[in-house]
Amino acid sequence: MSATPLLELRGIDKSFGPVQVLRDVAFAAHPGEVTALVGDNGAGKSTLVKCISGIYPTDAGEVLFDGKPVSINSPRDAAALGIEVVYQDLALCDNLDIVQNMFLGREKRSGIVLDEPTMEQMAAETLAGLSVRTVKSLRQHVSSLSGGQRQTVAIAKAVLWNSKLVILDEPTAALGVAQTAQVLELVRRLADNGLAVVLISHNMNDVFAVSDRIAALYLGQMVAQVKTTDITHSQVVELITAGRSGNLGLVTADAATGPNGNGAATADTNPGAVR
C-alpha cells in the first residue's frame, strides 16, 4: 500500500439550501486497497460520491489526487483524473452487446466508421485482465446476462479507461449468493491490480470480506476511518446508527460540538478517528 492516498478529502462541506448534508468530511482512498464507505440512509454517502465524481460542487474543503490539489468541477474532470463510478443502476443498455456498452459514448473510429475490431480486442483484454471467465461472447446482448454478469460488465467498463480510482455503489445488491461471491472476487482483484477501490455497501458481510479499511458516515460527518482488522461488526453498526462506539467516533452521539468543532474527537484524543 502506498503511504500517500490516491484520493484525499479534507474539510468537505456541502449544503442544499438550509440543509447541510456534509460537514467537515475527511476521507482517504489508497491504491491497492478497498475502502468501504458505510452509513445509514441519509448519512451523505451518495452526496459525497457525487462530489468526488464532479456532479456536485463542494461548498468548502480541499481535494487532493495523488498528493496534489485538484478541482473536480464536472464528471469530465473526474474521468480525466482516472475516477470512474459504477452506480447501482449500472447504466447499461439492454439492447446493446457487451462491446457496445463498454464503449458507449467513447467509441473508437477508423475514419468515419466504427473500429469494431479494436474495440472488441480492448474489451476482451480488459475482461481477461480481470480474470473474467463467465461471459461466453462479447457480442451477446446485455439483456441476456445474469445480474452478476451485468455487474461484471459495468465494472470492466469502468476500468477500461485507465482508471485509478473506481467507486462501486452497492455492487452486490439484489444478487444471489454465487453471483455475490463472483462480484466480490472481482472487487478484490481490482485492488490487487493496484487500483484504489471505494465500496459503498449496507451488507456488513461483504464489507468485512473484501475491504482493507472502513469509513463510517453519520449524519454527514465522517466519524471514523479505520483498518478493517481493527474494528468489529458490532462497532461498525454502532458507528452507523449512533455515530460512536467505545473510543471511536463522535465525542457525543448527538453530535454536540467537540474538540475539533464538529463533534468528532481529534486523532490525539481518539485513536480511531480519521487520520
Automatic annotation (TrEMBL):
Gene3D superfamilies: P-loop containing nucleotide triphosphate hydrolases. The keyword Isomerase does not apply. Keywords: ATP-binding, Nucleotide-binding. Residues 7-244 form the ABC transporter domain. It comes from the Bacteria. GO terms for molecular function: ATP binding; ATP hydrolysis activity. Pfam families: ABC_tran. Transmembrane segments: none annotated. The keyword Nucleotide-binding applies. InterPro entries: AAA+_ATPase (IPR003593), ABC_carbohydrate_import_ATPase (IPR050107), ABC_transporter-like_ATP-bd (IPR003439), P-loop_NTPase (IPR027417). This is Sugar ABC transporter ATP-binding protein. It comes from Micromonospora globispora.
